[in-house]
């Protein structure tokens, strides 16, 4: 993680993401800008947070760790997602792993700063209520997806969630070397996931080449996902 001491960049990112209408100018000036590299954790299970994070560039993967050591995908986070709002305000320990996918930029607001804003900033309160509502809605959706849907539907939803940010057909995050990790996150075995990948290849939904997958038939993925995304 790298701290970026650049107030002009902080104000620019805040402006591009609409934060000037949510936080006071003093609060924006009091925030830190942090850069995280690919695979770096923003927070881990058991952490006690002293900052609330706002994603302004990049993408995050949020997954929960199970008692048996496996993990289960919760959702992807995109700008303007908030990380640590519940944990920070209620001082709960972190329950999920939050990891950067590629490089990401986050603004960090300290607990004292956030509590001061709450005193008279109704725009911030409305914003955080909206964030909490979104999290509750998507948590119910992804829980049902993980528990009730067959693997082919979950895998299609995962691919579509990545596709939404890729800007094209290539899905570089799915590499042969990461299928075992992905199988854990989708609540299945590597062997079962590999069978689904082979079937998707045979049906012309994806192409497997040089250790990565390309989406060939997005419409078929949409049909399989049935409106469910990890977001």
TrEMBL record:
Record key words, sorted: Activator, DNA-binding, Kinase, Transcription, Transcription regulation, Transferase
The keyword Cytoplasm appears for this protein: no
Listed name of the protein: cAMP-binding domain of CRP or a regulatory subunit of cAMP-dependent protein kinases
Entries under PROSITE patterns matching the protein: CNMP_BINDING_3 (PS50042), HTH_CRP_2 (PS51063)
Cited Pfam families: cNMP_binding (PF00027), HTH_Crp_2 (PF13545)
Domain Cyclic nucleotide-binding: 31-135
Segments forming domain HTH crp-type: 149-219
Gene Ontology CC annotation, any one: cytosol
Source organism superkingdom: Bacteria
MF (Gene Ontology): DNA binding; DNA-binding transcription factor activity; kinase activity
CDD domains named among the record's database cross-references: CAP_ED
UniProt xrefs under PANTHER family: CRP FAMILY TRANSCRIPTIONAL REGULATORY PROTEIN (PTHR24567), REGULATORY PROTEIN YEIL (PTHR24567:SF26)
């Amino acid at each position: 993680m790298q701290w970026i001491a650049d107030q002009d960049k902080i104000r620019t990112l805040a402006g591009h993401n609409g934060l000037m209408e949510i936080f006071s100018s003093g609060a924006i000036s009091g925030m830190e800008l942090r850069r995280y590299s690919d695979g770096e954790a923003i927070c881990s299970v058991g952490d006690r947070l002293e900052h609330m994070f706002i994603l302004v560039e990049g993408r995050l993967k949020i997954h929960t760790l199970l008692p048996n050591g496996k993990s289960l995908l919760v959702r992807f986070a995109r700008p303007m997602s908030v990380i640590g709002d519940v944990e920070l305000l209620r001082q709960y320990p972190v329950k999920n792993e939050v990891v950067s996918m590629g490089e990401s930029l986050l603004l960090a607001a300290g607990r004292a700063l956030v509590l001061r804003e709450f005193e008279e900033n109704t725009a911030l309160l409305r914003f955080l209520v909206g964030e909490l509502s979104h999290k509750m809605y998507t948590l119910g959706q992804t829980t049902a997806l993980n528990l009730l849907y067959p693997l082919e539907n979950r895998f299609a939803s995962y691919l579509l969630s990545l596709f939404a940010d890729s800007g094209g057909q290539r899905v570089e995050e799915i590499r042969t070397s990461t299928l075992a990790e992905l199988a854990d996150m989708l609540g299945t075995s590597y062997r079962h996931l590999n069978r689904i990948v082979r079937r998707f290849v045979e049906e012309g939904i994806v192409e497997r080449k040089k250790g990565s997958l390309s989406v060939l038939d997005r419409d078929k993925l949409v049909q399989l996902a049935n409106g469910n995304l990890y977001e």
